[in-house]
Amino acid sequence: MENSSKRPIYLLPYYLWIALFVITPIALVAYFSFFDLSGNLTLENYRNFFTSVYLRMTLSSFWYAFLITLFSILIAYPTAYLLTKTKHKQLWLLLIIIPSWINLLLKTYAFIGIFGLYGPANQFLEFLGIGQQQILFTDFSFVFVSVYIFIPFMILPIFNSLDKLNPALIDASRDLGASSWTTFRRIIFPLAIGGVKSGVQAVFIPALSLFMITRLIAGNKVITLGTAIEQQFLVTQNWGMGSTIAVFLILFMFIIMMLTGQRDKGGTTNVKTK
Fold first, then answer.
1. Taking the mean position of all CA atoms in its chain, how far away is CA 223?
2. What is the pLDDT of residues 20-29, one digit of tens each?
3. Other C-beta atoms within 10 Å of 250: how many?
4. Residues 185 and 257 sit within 8 Å (Cβ to Cβ)
5. Cα(254)–Cα(22) distance, rounded to whole angstroms?
6. Within a 10 A sphere around the Cβ of 106, how many other Cβ atoms?
7. Rounded to 5, what percent of the chain is helix, strand, coil?
8. CATH ID of 52-259, from 3.90.1150.10, 3.40.30.10, 1.10.3720.10, 3.30.2130.10
9. Cβ distance 222 to 205 under 8 Å?
10. How far apart, in Å, are the Cα atoms of 33 and each of 62, 85, 89, 252?
11. Is the dihedral of CA 176, 180, 186, 188 positive or negative?
């Protein structure tokens, strides 16, 4: 009884942190979204968001975030699976995670040099006889660099889920005559789906709000919600419209988190056996 009565005191720093750095910023963003350039209360910002310009930008943001997430899963899942089979898996996992410690701006500028007209990528194309190509400032370069940056955040949760699988279940599946594909489809993938969902959250949500990569790698040819917020706040100085876009971005993030959230009941996971 004594410990339970003191528990709220221990949680006070947590509640203060949430109130100051989560609830308050969101409330301020929502507050400024109701003001126009002249400081007058208005709903015009919300009406403008549902115009064709901003709806196309929103669809474009979701499309690029989907591509980045899809390619990340296609690369991360087999990579994580192979890591669980290696002898020094923790060492290999560390080597994959280390690049994520490097500053994002440094990695972005490195790819500007790699994909430039006289960079290693074009030199390799010339060696193959293809000749120089405009790789930088394209959709390909944007998606490629984004996948490179986000892929450690996809590999890690998938690896943790696969590494915790009970090997006896896989052995039992094979003893019962199931093929490798059936074992993966009915046993491995359902039991490791939690790692995929966590990876989607870690990749898809930040990919929606990218702005630095779109500016430096895509040359502003790719416009996302993050790019639009940056332009509204720093270029046009329209804080109201920038806040309105941020409100919808936060709303999209909550929806994605709800869709990819864990729904385990009773600590068990259902596996199809038929």
1. 17
2. 999 999 999 9
3. 15
4. no
5. 13
6. 8
7. 75, 0, 25
8. 1.10.3720.10
9. no
10. 22, 51, 48, 16
11. positive
H helix and E strand count, the chain: 16, 0
* Amino acid identity, position 117: L
pTM: 0.88
| 28-51 residues labelled b (16+ CB within 10 A) or e (exposed) | ebeebbbbeeeeeeeeebeeebee
For the chain, domain boundaries: 52-259
15-69: pLDDT as tens digits: 999 999 999 999 999 999 999 988 899 999 999 999 999 999 999 999 999 999 9
Half-sphere CA count of 134, side-chain side, radius 13 A? 5
